[in-house]
Design brief:
Blueprint lengths: L32 H6 L8 H11 L4 E9 L2 H13 L4 E6 L6 H15 L3 E7 L8 H9 L3 E5 L12 E2 L2 E5 L3 E5 L5 H4 L13 E6 H16 L18 E8 L5 H14 L3 E6 L2 E2 L2 H12 L3 E7 L5 H16 L3 E5 L7 E5 L3 E5 L3 E2 H5 L1 E9 L1 H15 L2 E4 L1 H5 L3 H12 L5
Parallel strand pairs: 2-3, 3-4, 5-17, 10-12, 11-16, 12-13
Antiparallel strand pairs: 1-8, 1-9, 2-6, 6-7, 7-8, 9-17, 10-14, 13-18, 14-15, 15-17
């Protein structure tokens, strides 16, 4: 009589997932996947939900430890600088914007100190996002032993200028990682009571296997920018405990369709609440319909959006969707305390996402992005408390007053909405 052999866990190869060429079946594409997710008996708490995420993204949910969300830039940068100070072998830092200002110089000093003690330090910044940073700043970093690459400078990448690296990643020793919405600059990480008007943003730390995967994501952008290769061995089978996490990353030609499908699955599976914070809300009509459908079936759908923005045109494009969303029961708030730059969501006290992806065409078509999805009640409750605190600093948009706004405002919003695919 033959005996079945126990299934052995396989090593995970160091390639970004979803892999290039991955094709989603029609039923798993956004927004169709929302219908699949609605069939789950227990919504996002159903065991089939995690299986659905794996089917969409093609990657396993890895156990994340010491998951710590940050809602104040100063606290996030204190934690990141502490991790850099503890580095023994490698620091990988990727940022859309890396400024030559107080926060940027402090971080540059830490990176240079790490390189001086023998740590390999790689810094990848987007050439467009960091356009205002002086060339001398990069030269000073390089002189201290830091490897620096700029993603898609104007020349010779003239035809690739639409493709930007919008990720914010820090990985230390492939064991500790950070990601979220915070770039490197004073408006993101200024200490309390400083003269800088600090923005409201979110970031997250995770230890363990997800840090290895973020190193793989970093290596993709690093290689495209011409950086010296990073040797990343396969991930051995993971036996440690931790919250199931998914590194949800994308770049043109890989991952955008999957990221949209994961969002559709989350909204479709929601039973109680979908609370979204987003800084640049100029969505596709399909996403607007998904949010309206969820509200229509009794889900508490709330959008927390900027009351003032560094890109006013995008804010007005989002305004073009408000009337339809309000009519279907979606509640909309505009944050008033400062500029809102966070990109996050929390669903049914179980699903949390923190990252760099905006709800606009650029994030889902042209940018390289990175987000961390976490299945954890503890993390979700912290996200929910932060959302409640933000609502106390916000103004709710009500349908009667929205309909009564001045004609020039309504016309401008409608025109800006037409420009949504270009934003």
């Amino acid at each position: 009589m033959s005996r079945s052999r126990p299934r052995r866990s396989r090593r995970l190869r160091a390639i970004p997932r979803p892999i290039v060429g991955h094709v989603l079946p029609p039923e798993l594409r956004a927004p169709h996947v929302a219908s699949v997710a609605r069939q789950l008996a227990h919504g996002v708490h159903d065991p089939g939900f995690a299986a659905l995420l794996r089917r969409i993204d093609g990657a396993p949910l890895l156990p994340g430890r010491a998951i710590e969300p940050y809602f104040r830039g100063h606290e996030a940068f204190v934690a990141m600088r502490s991790a850099i100070a503890s580095a023994r072998s490698e620091i990988l830092l990727e940022s859309y914007i890396f400024k030559d200002d107080g926060v940027g110089r402090d971080l540059a000093t830490d990176l240079g100190d790490a390189a001086a003690r023998g740590v390999r330090v790689c810094v990848l910044a987007d050439a467009f996002g960091s356009f205002s940073t002086r060339r001398a700043f990069w030269s000073e970093l390089a002189a201290r032993g830091v490897e620096v690459r700029l993603f898609h400078p104007l020349f010779p990448r003239l035809w690739n200028q639409g493709y930007r690296d919008h990720r914010k990643i820090l990985v230390v020793d492939r064991a500790v990682a950070f990601t979220g919405g915070m770039n490197v600059g004073d408006e993101y990480g200024a200490p309390p009571h400083s003269a800088v008007d600090a923005w409201r943003d979110s970031h997250v730390r995770v230890d363990g296997a997800p840090a290895w995967e973020m190193a793989v994501v970093f290596a993709e952008g690093w290689a495209r920018a011409g950086g010296a290769p990073l040797e990343i061995p396969p991930l051995e089978p993971v036996a440690e405990e931790g919250a199931p996490t998914l590194v949800l990353d994308s770049r043109p030609g890989r991952g955008h369709e999957e990221s949209a499908a994961v969002l559709g699955a989350i909204i479709g599976a929601a039973r109680d609440h979908v609370w979204i914070t987003n800084s640049y809300f100029a969505p596709k009509a399909a996403l607007s319909r998904l949010l309206g459908d969820a509200a229509a079936r009794g889900v508490d759908v709330r959008l927390l959006l900027p009351g003032r923005s560094d890109v006013p045109l995008v804010r007005h494009a989002g305004h073009g969707f408000f009337a339809g969303l309000l009519a279907r029961g979606v509640r909309i708030y505009e944050y008033a305390a400062s500029i809102l730059h966070a990109k996050s969501l929390v669903v049914d006290e179980h699903v949390s996402v923190i990252g760099s992806t905006n709800m606009d065409y650029r994030s889902f078509h042209w940018n390289a992005e990175c987000n961390l999805l976490v299945l954890s009640r503890e993390v979700a409750l912290r996200m929910r408390r932060a959302f409640d605190e933000d609502l106390a600093r916000s103004r709710e948009i009500l349908a009667p007053e929205w309909r009564a706004r001045p004609l020039p405002h309504r016309v401008g919003d409608g025109f800006a909405r037409l420009l949504t695919p270009l934003l």
